[in-house]
Amino acid sequence: MIIDTIENLGKYTTLNPLFAEVVEFLKNNNLQTMEVGKYPIKEKDLFMNLQVAKQRTKDTAVLETHIEMIDIQIPITCAETFGYTPLADLPAFEYNAEKDITKYGDTKPQTYVTVNPGQFAIFFPQDGHAPCIIDEAEVKKAIFKVKA
């Protein structure tokens, strides 16, 4: 997991060649004014979901992991807290290959981190994360899905 400011995202392009395309997309698009929806960037290997997600609490947020894709999550309208547990510390649960997700039921995160607008969080396949823990009713956010 990585948390940093959007201005520093370019420093992480050596971790995955597709990260450079995320940086370019952000330079050329204003997430604040874009409509909610799915934005293909590079076929199935890189796309962005711009969504409005409903509030979850520490009790209702569910840990998840992805095998095929890396998440770069950017809250736009308010701070978003994520629960975090390394995959190595999570129990076995069924993987949904079609949706590239494993959800971990009632398993509670080991720790929490808060990401503010203007910042991002990168979750790799080894990072269990519970998104959308917010104080507002909903959050507009961008989730870049990057082929791992």
UniProtKB/TrEMBL annotation:
A GO CC annotation given for this chain: cytosol
Coiled coil region boundaries: none
Source organism, top-level taxon: Bacteria
Xref: InterPro entries: NanQ/TabA/YiaL, NanQ/TabA/YiaL_sf
SUPFAM superfamilies: Clavaminate synthase-like
Listed PANTHER family: EVOLVED BETA-GALACTOSIDASE SUBUNIT BETA, PROTEIN YIAL
Matching NCBIfam families: YhcH/YjgK/YiaL family protein
Entry protein name: YhcH/YjgK/YiaL family protein
Originating species: Xylanibacter ruminicola
Upper lineage: Bacteria, Pseudomonadati, Bacteroidota, Bacteroidia, Bacteroidales
